[in-house]
Amino acid sequence: MCFDKISEWIDSHSALAVDLERKLTATKALAPESDGDGEMEKCLLLEDWLRSHKITDLVRFDAPDDRVSCGKRPNLVATIKGKSSKALWIMSHLDIVPEGDLSLWKTPPFEVHVEGDKIIGRGVEDNQQGVVSSSMMAAAFAELGIQPELTIKLLFVADEEVGSIYGIQYLLETQTLFSKDDLIVIPDGGAENGADIEVAEKHMLWLEFRTVGKQAHGSRPDEGCNAHLANCFLALEINGLEQVFTQRNPIFAPDYSTFQPTKKNANVPNINTIPGDDVFCVDCRILPCYTLDEVRSEIQKCVKKTEEKYGVAITVEEKQSVQSPATPNDAPVVSVLCDAIKSVYGVDGKIIGIGGGTVASYLRNAGFHAVVWSRMFETAHQPNEYCLLSNILGDAKVFSKMVL
Ligand SMILES: [Zn+2]
Q1: Distance, CA 188 to ligand 1 centroid (Å)?
Q2: Where are the domains of the chain?
């Protein structure tokens, strides 16, 4: 009964969603790293919109940042109290990435262009689809005066595109917003049919190996110590760890841990010199059933073996390391979301893992069971970025279903 009313409200106010997309897109929210002035103007616009739709419990948690004119990066929480204090959090981000090469855009990136069901413009999908769908859902409850079972918490964060230091990381360090049994959805990724629910990321470990041997003439390897040759051996040894870390998990593609040599620095400029110095990098993507420390210790063994075999000295530098636990497949957020997706979109939820690198890892590391979900095309960061109005409205209904 309540859901039908809410669903009807959302459908009959579709023009409101397009209008909000238009306003948000026109208010560029770029990080200072992208020569922007942050998210404050966009946040204030959104606050006004929410207030005008009877969502009045708004609290800001601003992170100080001298690089923007107002000195603050805004993080906004909008609350609609439910019968239970247990909350559904929908976390989306206010910042966008720059338009990129303007010549690739068919319409001006910061003026929303509507083509049938398609809404085109920078940021309309990443992440305004989430901003607008969650705002529409909250507006439906507030305007109709329906109290949800669960408390609705919309979280709009700053600084997602550049590193989240002034966004979710700041919130996790300075506030205690979340409870362990809250449901957390991040509508910032997903499949075109709305099935994919991302619950896990592979751990990421990026390493650089600097190997020192002894330079010599190309004809006298006996007088030198070939650092490049040693690194070739080391690269194969590290790649061979794919046969050591053999666990498989079908939610990931590929379903195993990978150890891939990637970047290779230039060494000597000519063919007839034995290089005494050589640098290459490895990108490791590890299933969450392992720890990065287990990986580090196996890599150290490869390094030792190479040093002994080739008489070189190797230093290892970690360029990046991210480790986060998976949200369990049977976490309540997964089943509640699956039911809602099934009833709104008629598809069965599919649990997936990805190669690594979303904000969900910060929440998972803090002990919260977050999932990444939306029905979208993943046109983020591309020219002619778009989203479908029908997906904004559909996602709003999915979120509504979750709190009823
Ligand atoms: Zn995003």
Answers
A1: 5
A2: 2-189+374-403, 201-322
State the CB neighbour count (10 A cutoff) for residue 167: 30
* CATH code matching the domain that covers 2-189+374-403, chosen among 3.10.20.30, 3.40.630.10, 1.10.3720.10, 3.40.50.450: 3.40.630.10
**2-189+374-403 and 201-322: identical CATH topology:** no
Q: How far is the CA of 296 from the centre of ligand 1 (A)?
A: 31
Catalytic, 298? Answer no
Residues 213-225, buried b or exposed e (16+ Cβ, 10 A)? Answer: bebbeeeeeeebb
CA of 268 to the centre of ligand 1 (A): 41
CATH number for region 201-322: 3.30.70.360
pLDDT grade, residue 237 (50/70/90)?
very high
Q: Cα angle vertex 214, ends 211, 217, to 5°?
A: 125
pLDDT above 90: residue 378: no
Of 21, 39, 95, 161, the catalytic one is 95
Q: Residue 195 — φ and ψ, nearest 5°?
A: -85, -40
User: Any catalytic annotation for residue 277?
Assistant: no
CA atoms of 175 and 69, how far apart (whole Å): 24
Q: Which residue among 160, 182, 188, 283 is the active-site one?
A: 160
Contact between 175 and 75 (Cβ < 8 Å): no
pLDDT of residue 97: 95
Q: Which two tokens stand for residue 159?
A: 């600084």
Average pLDDT over residues 66-93: 98
Residue 166 has pLDDT above 90, yes or no: yes
pLDDT (0 to 100) of residue 226: 98
